[in-house]
Here is the input.
Amino acid sequence: MHPMDDTPRPPRHFWPVAVLGLPWNAFGAWDWLMTNMRDAAYVAQLPSETMQYVDAMPYWALGTWTLGVWAAVLGSVLLLRRSRFAVHAFAASLIGLALGTVYQASIDLPAPMATGPMIAMTLVVWIGAIALL
Here is the structure.
């Protein structure tokens, strides 16, 4: 810390976490955009059950997915700017993730979505979201 600067330096892990958090969350936003815009090339690579699942989502569940994804992107941008409001955005993202997970747990998921890889991905998303908060 410079004698004339009263802003504390972030810990050593701050910049790697902040820099890696943005592309991680941007991938979630890209997935959300491509899925909801029905990008033909993107949707073609997904199992048909995935789009059936998305099409069957009630609006509130789509809203939780939207909140989780876009609040995480906002949190990543705010974190890079070292804004104290990043924590609020990441908390909102966790709320969206929690509600989305409750929805997923309350329905019969199509077979490909109830497999080990999908469950593992959900766990990885949870770990990443908690770590960023």
Summary: Residues 31 and 132 are 19 Å apart (CA to CA). The first helix runs from residue 14 to 36. The mean pLDDT is 89. The radius of gyration is 17 Å.
